[in-house]
Amino acid sequence: MRSYFFLLVSIIIFLSLTGPSIVSGNFAFVFDMGRDQLWIRDMVELRRPTLIGPWGSIAGIFFGPLWFYLLSIPYLIFKGDPRGAVLVSLAANLLTMIIGWQFLRKNKHPVAGNIFAILYSVSPLTISLSSFAFHANLLPLITLLFFIGLYVFHKSLFINHKSLLGLSLAALSASLAYHFEPAAGVMLTGFMTVLILINMRQMKIFQSFKSLKNILIAIILFLIPFLPQLVFELRHDFIQTKSLFGYFSGENTSLGGVLPLSERIVERGIKLGETLTYSLFTIDSNLWKIVFLGLFILALLALTKLKKFTLNLDSFTLYSLLFTLYFLSFHYLAYTFLFPAELKGWYLSGFVSIHILAFSLICEFVYGAPRSINSATSRSFRQSFNEASLSAIHPRVNSRFSCERRDKSSHLFILTILIFIIIRNINPFDRIFGGQKPPLPPETFSAQIEVVDWIYRDAIHKDKPFAVYTYTPPVYDYQYQYLLWWRGINKYKLLPAEYSYKPGETSYLQYKDRFVSSIWKPKDAQLMYLIIEPDNLEFRVAGWMGNFLRSDKLETREFPSKVKVLFGSL
Length: 570
Description:
Layout: H1 5-24, H2 31-45, H3 66-77, H4 82-106, H5 110-122, H6 124-129, H7 139-158, H8 165-180, H9 182-198, H10 209-223, H11 227-235, H12 239-249, H13 261-280, H14 286-305, H15 307-310, H16 315-337, H17 351-367, H18 375-385, H19 397-401, H20 408-426, H21 428-433, H22 445-462, E1 466-471, H23 478-492, E2 498-500, E3 527-532, H24 538-545, E4 555-558, E5 564-569
Parallel strand pairs: 1-2, 1-3
Antiparallel strand pairs: 3-5, 4-5
């Protein structure tokens, strides 16, 4: 039980930082989340399984459908409550913390495992990814499994580990990434391919029939998650393939945001630094983000390149730090020179698990936990990476370093850093003495429910057919489309005569006619409610208001979230 203490504490901290916001509805429910819930509703209520997931940034390209099928589980359990969808992200990141902790312990790094669990439980990026339902929020789990698979694959090649199942796990993980963020899937696939090509000479194990069979299994596992999209392509005249060729040929410019190379060189560094710092603690300065990224890379280089440090590293730590170094370098170069568009922050969401794992191993090294190095393992690892720095390892290094004495000053240094990070991220003083909390922003689920419930109660009190129209900056009101339907069906047992972003508009919803009122038609509406989310561009709001006659005669109700509802008789 004692060995599970830090894991249990980490789980408690993690759930205490994420659970209350989910239960209270204090999480973002915006365009993408509303779209996903509508798609799940159509799948479940109409019994129409899908072959594709959300649309991508490139027009005509779609994610894999796994995200939607995962969301369908809490939809059924919680009867469509959007809070259930957030639990998918929460569960994925909780599983990432547990797997990372167990993986480090299994490879004889219990101290690093405990540090990993604690840091992951308080990571601002992890807490954020676990607090709203978005497809890219599952990337930390996928990326960690990808790393584990490649490590097992490496052991199979160079440490006489008789299994190539690691390659299958890495291939499957890379393939599944296309279901949660295709950009991440492309990068994981590219990184895995580069590593295989680099190590091709050492793949003598591939000569056996069993090894070839395992390679074939890895290829099959990589292809299986693409089967639904392949069926979709066959049914729709290869629309995605044509769109992809159109993008690379310059005909399809839907991705937009193309940056010149000089800007990309700096922008990629800032984004990578931002992901690194946000994995550990929040910081606003772009300069400091790059500084911390530089210090992190220097630490990786120092521990993996300098002889006097390398002598103290076991093969697992050395592999993990080299993997992190190569992983960051590959993504920086690929995103800089092969991806001209602006880099979206969520493409890098999966990095959090790799960052915290590497940082935990660095902390363990500085902490001074005793470790030993097997000479045969060292030689095989030297063969895999051809590192000149490993040539200094002496066969007797085992006896020399197996009983290292712990440096109390290094203990205190690492403990101080960890306590600082924990206190900074939890911020207990602000939680206890922070005073009155500011109003929730308009994109918050609970703020939206407050608006929807008020409209239903007011309309029921007046006992007249009513219509609801919504203005949101993205134009399409997916989130309110879902909330008006879900709240109306489950709590109030009725629906508006019409609900849309403007009168008569249904083209942006494929099955809207299946989710409208059975007792009222749009023309029956005697009351009208206009939901208006705040927008700095007032002319757009004014243009939208032009769809409604006599809007100047309506009353106004403003909510704490700054959302306004104009209402009155038609």
